[in-house]
Specification:
Elements lengths: L1 H21 L6 H26 L8 H18 L3 H25 L5 H19 L10 E2 L18 H24 L1 H11 L1 H6 L4 H27 L1 E2 L1 H4 L2 H14 L6 H23 L4 H16 L4 H8 L8
Antiparallel strand pairs: 1-2
Pfam families: BPD_transp_2 (PF02653)
Protein name: ABC-type branched-chain amino acid transport system protein
Membrane topology: Multi-pass membrane protein
Length: 329
C-alpha cells in the first residue's frame, strides 16, 4: 500500500513539474511574472519551514536573510561586477553567520517561543536601520542594478536576461529546495528536529543534542532564504532597505506556509499559489473600487479562517481529499 502512495506522489510531482516546465510555451511575460512570484514565495516558504516547520523555532524576522542575500549579491555586482552566483555564496555565508549569532544568543540563554521571535525582529530592524544609512549600498536612496541591454541574449551566469530565463531559474531553485527539504526530513537530523519541535525537554532527555540541531536548522534556513534574496534582487533590479527588510515581507514570507501547512513539504507550494492568486485578484478589486488595504484585510480574514477551520493548513486536508494519506508529507 505504501508503494502505491509513493507511486501516486511521484506521478503527481512529475506531472506538476512537467506542466510548470512547459508553461513558458503558452504564457506571456505577465503570466510568467505571476508564476515567478508563486515560485519565489514557495521557495522562501520552504526555507522558513526548515526552521519553524521542522525544528519548531519561530522566526518573525526572516526578511533579514532575504535582505542580506539581496544586498550582498547586488552590491558586489554593482561595485565589482561579481557574478550573482559568487555573490550568493557571500550572502549565504553572511546570513548563516548572523543566524548563528541569533541562534547562539537565543538558545544559550533559553530564549524560546514568542521571545525568540521578538529577537529575530530586533535583528531585522537593526539591520534595516544600518542599511538605511550605509552609503556603499545606496542607503535610503536605494541600490539599482543595471538591466540587461534590449534584445541581448540571456546570460545565466550574470542573471541578466528575459522573464523566461528568470522563470526557469526560480523553478529550478524551488524544485531543488523541495528535494533538499525532503532529504533532510528523511535523514536522522529530520527526526531529531521533529522530536525537538514536539517536546524539547524529552528530546534532550533522550540524548539529542538540542542546541547543535537547532543551530543547524537556523543556519540552513538562513542560507536558503539568502539565496532567494539574491534572485529577488536581480529580478527586480532595485533594492530599498524599507521594503527588503520590512516586517511585511517577513509575514508574507511565512503566511503561505501557515496557510498551506507548517511542517509539510507541499504546504509552502499550495500556500504560495493560494496567496498569490488571492493577492492578484484583490489588488485588481481594490483598484477597481478605489479602496486601499483590501488585500491586507483579506489576508487577515483568510489566516483567521485557516487557523479556525483547518489549523493544520490546507495541504493535510487536500492530501486526505486526494487519498494520499499514506504519504505523511
Amino acid at each position: 500500500m505504501s508503494a502505491l502512495f509513493q507511486d501516486r506522489r511521484a506521478v503527481l510531482l512529475l506531472g506538476l513539474l512537467a506542466i510548470l516546465a512547459l508553461a513558458p510555451l503558452a504564457a506571456g511575460d505577465y503570466l510568467l511574472s505571476i508564476l515567478i512570484t508563486v515560485l519565489l514565495q514557495a521557495y522562501l516558504g520552504m526555507s522558513w519551514n526548515v526552521m519553524m516547520g521542522f525544528a519548531g523555532q519561530f522566526s518573525l524576522g526572516h526578511a533579514l536573510y532575504v535582505g542580506l542575500g539581496a544586498y550582498a549579491g547586488g552590491a558586489l555586482f554593482v561595485h565589482y561586477g561579481t557574478p550573482p552566483w559568487i555573490g550568493a555564496i557571500a550572502g549565504m555565508a553572511v546570513s548563516a553567520a548572523v543566524g548563528a549569532v541569533i541562534g547562539t544568543l537565543g538558545f544559550r540563554f533559553k530564549v524560546m517561543g514568542v521571545y525568540f521571535a521578538l529577537l529575530t525582529i530586533a535583528f531585522a530592524e537593526f539591520t534595516r536601520v544600518l542599511f538605511d544609512h550605509w552609503g556603499w549600498v545606496g542607503a535610503s536612496s536605494g541600490l539599482f542594478l543595471p538591466p540587461a541591454p534590449n534584445n541581448s541574449p540571456d546570460n545565466l551566469w550574470l542573471l541578466r536576461g528575459s522573464t523566461t530565463m528568470f522563470y526557469y531559474v526560480i523553478l529550478g531553485m524551488t524544485a531543488a529546495a523541495f528535494w533538499f527539504s525532503r532529504a533532510l526530513l528523511m535523514r536522522r537530523i529530520g527526526y531529531y528536529w521533529q522530536a525537538i519541535r514536539e517536546d524539547q525537554d524529552a528530546a534532550d532527555a533522550l540524548g539529542i543534542d538540542v542546541f547543535r540541531n537547532k543551530m543547524i536548522a537556523v543556519l540552513i534556513s538562513a542560507a536558503m532564504t539568502s539565496l532567494g534574496g539574491v534572485f529577488l534582487a536581480f529580478f527586480n533590479n532595485n533594492l530599498y532597505p524599507e521594503s527588503i527588510f520590512s516586517m511585511h515581507r517577513s509575514i508574507e514570507l511565512m503566511l503561505g506556509t501557515i496557510i498551506g501547512g507548517i511542517g509539510t513539504l507541499f504546504g509552502p507550494i499550495l500556500g504560495a499559489v493560494v496567496l498569490t492568486a488571492l493577492g492578484e485578484l484583490l489588488t485588481e478589486l481594490g483598484a477597481h473600487i478605489g479602496i486601499d488595504g483590501v488585500k491586507q484585510i483579506a489576508y487577515g480574514i483568510c489566516l483567521m479562517l485557516i487557523l479556525v477551520l483547518k489549523p493544520g493548513g490546507l495541504w493535510p486536508w487536500l492530501r486526505k481529499l486526494l487519498r494520499l494519506e499514506g504519504d505523511g508529507r
